[in-house]
Amino acid sequence: MQALRGVSFMVAPAAMVVIVGKSGSGKTTLLNCMGGLDRPDSGRVIYAGRDLHCMPQRELSLFLRRDMGFVFQFGNLLSYLTVFENIAFPLTLNAVADNEKKRRVSELLERIGLADASRALPHELSGGEVQRVAVARALAHRPKLLLADEPTASLDSATGRNLINLMFAMGRESGCTMVLSTHDTEVMDLADQCIRIRDGMVQEGEGRRQ
Amino acid sequence: MLKQSGFWLKIASLFLVRSGRSTAALSLMVVTAVATLIFLSALAVGINDAMIRNSAGLYGGHITGFALPATLQPERLAVAGVAGIVKRVPTAGILAGPKHFETVIMLGIDPAAEQKNTAFWKKTVQGSFLSGASQGVFISRTLAEKLAVNTGDTVKFSPGDMEHFKPFKVEGIYNTGIEQLDRGIAFCSLAVHPCPQGAWSASVFLKDGVDPDDVLAAYRSKLPEAASFKSWSQLMPDLRQLIDLNYVSMSMVTVLVFGVVSLGIACAFVIFIMKHLREYGIMKAMGVTSGEMMRLIIMEIVLMNLAASLAGILAGIAAVLLVGVTGIDLTAFTSHNRYFAVSGMIYPRLTAFSLWSPPALALVFSLGSAIWPALLVARKKAADILKTG
């Protein structure tokens, strides 16, 4: 069975895109393909003129660490690293100097309101805090593209809305393109572009604010 | 590159330290295996030591010199590493009792030197060992039975001509259980020996840990009679083989035991890595390359092994030192064995081999057992890991 069929769309640089669809509609698979984590059986994912899936594995990994940021459904922080170390991880991968790394992580911690929890381990945080750290980590190395797969799925609606606002605000500040999947239709109001997906196919009238 | 290696080393260390119980449970297997094998290896060395100590210490020494000229002074044999020298002057002749006689080698000895360096005098079963210049003789139980004499009886010795017999009182009777010592030999003090100035034989006793070959090399460089000296391994090739066999079998046991233990370690490693599979998937999604992933997993395993092996080495050393003080009494299993003629006490001893081989094996087997999960993590797509992890 094909998870995605005939999906085709473009995303403009620095756009805020929301992919809306029910559970099992193919949102995660679509995001994974867009982010180079999964390989489509056919078709292409073109990023800045290059087909991601034609890249050698090492080059794809280096592309991911440099240009891409991910926020997963359940945060997916590295359990054995503190909040500070989790946010600093992509910066170290990108060989950012120590002073600059500390400055950026401290800024992000202030921004997400967790400056006091920098030494906490993920299991010591609430669900909302974990997702805020995940957003900070995904944006720490200033990626060109941020992919977020139902980041509010594990949160109550108020916390979820706060997280979306924070993510969109931080995304706009850093000028990165954001693609977010959700089944929360209210989020569509915040997006520049909305893609509805059902049974692996993009529905007609995909653009809301194109 | 170095900075990146430092980063992965830090990540691996944090992973192990903060994975707490999982790391401890896995480490415990390595600690136990390394400590056990160090102890077993030290025990094997201790058994070999005991066989050498018993065989050399009973009578012959670590080096024996034969038919040495009377002009050679025993003091000249005292080179570096030598703990003691025992001079014996052999004379073939007839030892006659009241009714029977036997051909024997009468050995003129210094009783004090024998008591200081050898243990065969401890095998006295009747009467007492020779002392000073007494006109006594010390004979085996077998010889006493053949001559039909007992302690206190008088025997006569003639150095071959059957005419000039010299009387000796039987002062002690011994039994070593070793044929060469229990047949055809009698001992008397050098002071009363019929031919004290004849050719002599030497038993050279070495300090602990001294290689007989080193002493033989020293003899070759300073003594024209060096060819007359043989080490215990040349005189007792059966014991040499037994010791080599013991080492080989112990090495095989070590490898086999670790092979079996490694199955447990391998399973634990696979579970350990699989348990954290999702986190490896997250790292892949963040752009960690397959090579870096392999490096991280190998670092985690090497670090864990180094820490666990260090603890295992310390535990093994502690066990060896503890038992090394008291010893293990295996007399019940060795009392009829000629290589344990003096004592069945075993003192485990550490050697460089027994210290480095178990941790090295632990590392090799652990790395081997980590190959599959490491390859799995490196090859699997991040999306698949995140879906199933």
The gist of it:
The complex is a heterodimer of chains A (210) and B (389). With 210 residues, chain A is α/β, with parallel strands linked by helices.
Describe the structure.
The complex is a heterodimer of chains A (210) and B (389). By secondary structure, chain A is α/β, with parallel strands linked by helices. Chain A has six helices and eight strands; from the N terminus they run E-H-E-E-H-E-H-H-H-E-H-E-E-E. The longest helix of chain A has 18 residues, at 157-174. Chain B folds into two domains: 2-56 and 239-388, no CATH class; 63-209, no CATH class. Helices cover 55% and strands 19% of the residues of chain B. In chain B, helix 8 packs parallel to helix 12 (352-379). Chain B is elongated, with a radius of gyration of 31 Å. The mean pLDDT of chain B is 87. The A-B interface holds A 29, 32, 35, 37-39, 57-58, 61-66, 68, 70, 72, 76-81, 85, 89-90, 92-93, 95, 121 and B 3-4, 7, 11, 14-15, 17-19, 278-279, 282-291, 381-384, 386.
The domain count of chain A comes to 1
Number of helices of chain A: 6
Helix content of chain B: 55-70%
How far apart are the first and last residues' alpha carbons of chain B, in Å?
Answer: 30 Å
Q: Care to count the β-strands of chain A?
A: 8
Individual helix count of chain B = 13
Which H/E pattern describes the elements of chain B? HHEEEHEEHEEHEEHEHHHHEHEHH
CATH superfamily of chain A: P-loop containing nucleotide triphosphate hydrolases
Order of helices and strands of chain A: EHEEHEHHHEHEEE
Query: Greatest interface and its residue counts?
Result: A-B, 30 and 26 residues
Strand order of the largest sheet of chain B: 2-3-8-5-7-6
Major sheet details of chain A: 6 strands, mixed
Note poorly predicted spans of chain B.
none
